[in-house]
Design brief:
It is a single chain. By secondary structure, the protein is an alpha+beta fold. The chain has 2 domains: about 1-35; about 40-180, Jelly Rolls (Sandwich), CATH 2.60.120.260. It is built from 3 helices and 10 strands. It has helices at about 5-35, 145, 150-155, and strands at about 40-45, 65-70, 75-80, 85-90, 100-110, 115-120, 125-135, 140-145, 155-165, 170-180. The strands form 2 sheets. Strands 1, 2, 3, 5, 8 and 10 form a 6-stranded antiparallel beta sheet that branches. Strands 4-9-6-7 form a 4-stranded antiparallel beta sheet. β6 and β7 (about 125-135) form a beta hairpin.
Amino acid sequence: MGTSQRWVNKKRAAKIKISTLTFVFIVFLANISLCSAQDIGWEDNFNTGVAEWYDEYDSDSFNCIITSLEDGTASIEVIGNSTWGKVAKVIEDVDLNKYPVIEIKANHVDPDSAFKVGITSLDWKEYYEIIPGQNLPGVYSESIKENVKLSNKFNSKFNLVIIIEGSNKSSIFDYIRLTSTKN
């Protein structure tokens, strides 16, 4: 075999190795994206506003207001002389057996303040804290099923509640969602 023939064979082998390596890398990336994808059953990323959330304007016992910010986040602020307040949204037609995890992303939490997330029955007689008090920005997720023995009333319609602790304190959120798995 001549020198030029060996050179051609080496070039072909290099092309095959690069092609094989490229294929393996593409398959690897596809598997990573499939494994990290969450199945989301419901989400509010606040990009369309906060009109469906109940706050102080709906009931003076809430002691909080929720405001949609220009960057697509939401600010929840305790008002008046209260040391805590809440906002709530009615969630319906989400299967909690399939999407049992509440996940929330906090972009900002005021110093000497905290937020927590829970669910209540529509009549407000049953409240369950799902994500306990958090005082730092970050993504938090907890399973409703691990914290609550669900009755049928929670599987059809319930209140999702965000509580802010601290007089005149606020937190800013990017999203809140119900997912199939913890993040």
